[in-house]
Amino acid sequence: MGLLGGRGDAQMLMMDKRRSSETVKQWVYRVLRSAIMTGRFKPGDPVTINGLADSLKVSAMPVREALHRLVADGALESLDNRRVRVPLVDPDRFDEILATRIALETVAAERALPHINFVRLARLQQLDARCDEIYDSGDLEGGIAANFEFHRFLYETRSSAVLLPLIESLWLRLGPFMRLASENLREHYIVDRHAEALDAIRHKDAAALKAAIAADIQDGVGYLGRTQFLETASAGHNPAEDM
Asked: What was the pLDDT predicted at 185?
């Protein structure tokens, strides 16, 4: 079996080079976590230790440890036969994760607002422009990563030291739906919610900022994840079989 049941792209994983400060174990975990978060793995995808070890050109041990951590994170699930796969999520669980993400991120945005000065606002504008540029180039995974970078930088203040790790754990759980959402983003995502958020920041309007963040999540993975994946699944068909 290959990296992801024959669907994996080893070269894409290897592009994320190991940092000089990282151990092999830390690098493998970071690469796999990022791959899940940006939608490189889809719901139901099988994941094998040997396949990942071969693709990353490492031994089985750091891969095994990374998979154990990702199972504990809720990003992967361990089956009775000791296989590991990306979880299939039913509509109710999806809605729960989505609602929690909206609740946490709107609070994080509100708490961050007083700390966003001119310099941080300029950086957010740069990140938003970069996100649009990458999506327009057709690089879906890069666009997803850039979108998360925008949100992370927005929330990343001392007032969200507890919130941000919780938010990232939800990004990890929703990651397998992100590519599906991004593939259809331009068809549905008519209003630029990042632009609304930036305008709210300029005016120091906490209510408008929270509304923009909530709408951004709902318009993206919230709308497309439910209508194009989960409704099919709830009708009795497993979309993972088509992937």
From this structure: 58
| pLDDT recorded at residue 237 | 46
Q: How many residues does the chain have?
A: 243
- Specify the pLDDT at position 181: 66
The sign of the torsion formed by the CA atoms of 160, 162, 168, 170 equals negative
For CA atoms 8, 85, 96, 170, give the dihedral sign. negative
90 to 5, 56, 164: CA distances (angstroms): 22, 31, 25
10 Å Cβ neighbour count for 98? 21
CA dist., res. 140 & res. 106, Å (int): 25
- Cα 16 to chain centroid, rounded: 16
Q: For residues 141 and 38, is the Cβ–Cβ distance under 8 A?
A: yes
Domains, the chain, ordered by start: 10-85 (1.10.10.10), 91-236 (1.20.120.530)
Q: Is the pLDDT at 2 greater than 70, yes or no? A: no
Whether residue 5 is predicted with pLDDT greater than 60 in this model: the reply is: no
